[in-house]
């Protein structure tokens, strides 16, 4: 369950947002929240490893009957549609309902939505249930909002700015926070847009960086409000990536170092990087 809101209001103020993100990382490590992951089987190992590194406790359970039980006991739930196999499709909606009934925050990662029909229909039903955060690339967010998208599988072919109005629309319609990943990330609650200039291109050269980010958002959402969770998790992954890239020979060594740097990340460092990375402005008016 989420804790009380940070002592300072993070909305519309980069300094307060930075302080809240640092406080959230401290709270996360103190609480060690259980994060239930209904996630992409291709990236399960990286998602679990990054959750352990940041200080959470992952549970990779997508078994009908058990998944619903765990959602009520977890600190947060991740729903990633990367590999919607029969077990996941059989339990995802009831798991989301169980999470909502227990007031457990849950995160929707609509992988490849807009390109593939089964997951597109499933994502449309799920987003209507009001996730705490929707995390995706620009093409996925545009498609989830019912707009034309140029996505190709898990790859975005739309620029982040092209998804700004769609993200605001989703946030306003479903009472959620939307995090759009890209060279400059965009996080919106429908009233405020936060742009984050943080990260490294090597994140696009490993399998599962976006899935890992979804898990980190869920971990932060277990201890703080959704806007802070999305900004804190995005900056944590981006800062760890910047540090990992400094000594990496290529994608393989970068991925190992990424987990190490998430483990070593200090709350004060996270707060300082949010402050330098974030710009806050009024959200786009949905068109």
Describe the structure.
By secondary structure, this protein is of the alpha/beta class. The protein has a single domain (14-282), classed as UDP-N-acetylmuramoyl-L-alanine:D-glutamate ligase. The protein is 49% helix and 14% strand. It is built from eleven helices and nine strands. The longest helix has 22 residues, at 226-247. The protein is globular, with a radius of gyration of 17 Å. It starts with 13 loop residues before the first helix and ends in a 5-residue tail after the last strand. Residues 1-7 and 151-156 have low confidence and may be disordered.
Radius of gyration: 17 Å
What would CATH call the homologous superfamily?
Ribokinase
Return the CATH architecture. Answer: 3-Layer(aba) Sandwich
Q: How many strands?
A: 9
Give the % helix.
40-55%
Strand content: 5-15%
CATH class: Alpha Beta
As for the number of domains, it is: 1
Give the topology.
Layout: H1 14-31, E1 34-38, H2 44-54, E2 57-59, H3 66-73, E3 76-80, H4 86-101, E4 106-109, H5 117-127, E5 133-137, H6 138-144, H7 164-174, E6 177-181, E7 185-188, E8 192-196, H8 209-221, H9 226-247, H10 251-264, H11 267-277, E9 278-282
Parallel strand pairs: 1-2, 1-3, 3-4, 4-5, 5-6
Antiparallel strand pairs: 6-7, 7-8, 8-9
Helix pairs in contact: 1-9, 1-11, 2-8, 2-10, 3-4, 6-7, 8-9, 9-10, 9-11
